[in-house]
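User: I'm putting together notes for a lab meeting next week and I want to include a structural view of one of the chains we've been expressing. I don't have a solved structure, so I'd like a prediction I can at least talk through. The sequence is below, exactly as it appears in our construct file.
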Amino acid sequence: MPPAIDLDSIYKEVLAEVHRAFVFMRLGHRGPDVMDFEETELKGNLQILVVPEPMAPEVLKEYQQQYVSWILGNGLRDLVEAFARFLDNIYEVGLTLSPSADQQKRLRFFEAQTLRPKVKILRDEFQIEGMYARHFESFVAARNSLAHGAGVVRRRDCTVGDELVITWDGLDSALVANDGNRYEPNELPEGLQFLPTSPIKRLPREKRWKIGERVQLGAKDLAEITFMASHEAVDVCDALCEYALKQGIRIKQVTIIRGGSDE
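Assistant: Thanks for the context. Below is the predicted structure for the 263-residue chain, given as structure tokens.
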């Protein structure tokens, strides 16, 4: 009898963490909206003075910048760690499909690896391809700067020369019209219409910061990064289904959740 495998539960687990990282980082962008530190006073009669109040505007501005860096750093860390745990779960399912005497030893070894070797092992053993490793590893470098450098790039944070570089797959906002060309939503020529099902085109993105510059990511950047993560999770699950089929085992494909697919 083939093993009972529920890919939906594995997919939903990583997707929930990807969504949480996105929401938390998006909420973090509200930090700069605070104009007066006294507005954030904690409820209750007892107020303990920890920092000088009223706070000088220039001091508050610096804290606001560090706050956003802190939120982004934690969000990127959660994103990377969630995907690593997801790959652990996928590898465990792969071992179930091809059982061996040293299964637990192989799983422990896999769990101890960083993202790049995890991706290589999945490719070599289960034909699960993935271009996501280099993207997620660049997030680790950015996270280190955000967490340990208060968001300012240090020499140790640089990944290419004297710059910190992060990469991801972005989305082309242009859609296909009935003349076969792509147009931005607000630039559609008169007389044309967008196709009802216009395929999403992914574009390579990158951001670079030199030593001494502050790492900053906009709302669109965060949306594209987390969309990429959720989409890659679907691709990995689909690749595992294909591997299982080669072993004569049919696994139900994941049920796509909004944000998790091109469709």
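A couple of points you could mention at the meeting. The longest helix spans residues 57-97. The CA atoms of residues 17 and 137 lie 18 Å apart.

User: Perfect, that's what I needed.
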